[in-house]
Amino acid sequence: MSVIQYIALAAVLFCFGGLLVFFIRIVKLGKPKDLSEKSGNTEKGVLYANTTAMLPQNKESAYLHLPSYATGILFHIGIFTSLLVFVLSFFPFFNRWISGPDRIHLIIPILLVVTCACGYLLLVKRAVSKDLKPLSNPDDFISNFLTSTFQLATMLYLFFPASHCIHIFYYIVCILLFLYFPFGKLRHVVYFFAARFHIGYFYGWRNVWPVKETE
């Protein structure tokens, strides 16, 4: 491995250490304590919160902004795809595959062209929207920019695996992303699941979720 790859691994360990602190804090808080009389099923409520409740028609306002909702979904697909590529980039078989004559791997960077474009579009929308801009803070812009650029760097890394300059650029972007991860809104990767559990527990306890179909 190169020196910059070792630095990237160190950044990942720093990131995981920071996220682990937040995870331990959440676990210590335990399950929500509800003093009201239980009338529903908390397990079904939690399951609903993490599945059907995420559909746009069941969200408070997402169904009114379907293009932005779809753009956000694609953006997150790109983030998880890029994270997988980062892990695989440390394995020789993967680097041989993307450098070989089999061009099927180009499907991944072509996908990332779309997903990173979605990220930058969301960034521009946040900057110019009269509704979003007043609600945004520097962390919103930094997090969006870093994750979008992470996808851009991954795309370039896959398109040009033999380029030393792109190799350096890719790992520099990865390092910056992982170092920033525990300090900004990106740490919602930990809080998201805790929040969905709590809201599912709350509404499941009260027999509000899962939502009953009405005739």
CATH superfamily: Transmembrane di-heme cytochromes, Chain C
When the domains are counted, the total is 1
Count of alpha/pi helices: 8
- The helix content is 55-70%
Net shape: globular
**Would you report the number of β strands?**
0
Residue ranges: pLDDT <50 for 5 or more in a row? Answer: none
Task: Walk me through this protein's architecture.
The chain is mostly helical and 215 residues long. Helix content is 67%, strand content 0%. It is built from eight helices and no strands. It is globular.
List the defining traits of the structure above.
mainly alpha, Fumarate Reductase Cytochrome B subunit, 8 helices, 215 residues, single chain, 0% strand
Question: Secondary structure elements and their pairing?
Answer:
Blueprint: H1 3-29, H2 42-49, H3 66-88, H4 92-99, H5 107-128, H6 138-159, H7 164-180, H8 188-205
Helix pairs in contact: 1-7, 2-8, 3-5, 3-6, 5-6, 6-7
